[in-house]
Amino acid sequence: MTTYLLWAVIGFVLIIAELVTGTLYLLVIGVAALFGALVAYLGGPFWLQALTTGAATLIGIYLVHRWFKKNPTKSNAENSLEIGQTVVFEHWVDETSGSARVKYRGASWDAKVTGSSTPGATLTIRALQQGVLQVSP
User: Quick check: 133 and 102 in contact, CB under 8 A?
Assistant: First the structure.
């Protein structure tokens, strides 16, 4: 089997494996192997094929890593079913910091209240952060 064909097969196998994992890193290595196949097809020596594949891998991994840092996945808290639900204000724990207790689903919860409120008032859940409801009128 010719060298360029071997590089191409390795590249396509890695690209197909990427479809199972979904991390993008195998895709980068697979595409880099295709660059190695191109260098082999053009008659480059093995050291140049390996160098091209390695350089393409490093550049690709750097770009994917940078993209993941720039576009973080949303946390489960943002997809929470609690957001938009209503709670009943019970009492202040510390009014200056906005800490309070609210009644939600039959239990008392810690809450961070934005704005002012009085006991018995209905508030809306805006977010859930580390088990503390972020609520406002």
Answer: yes
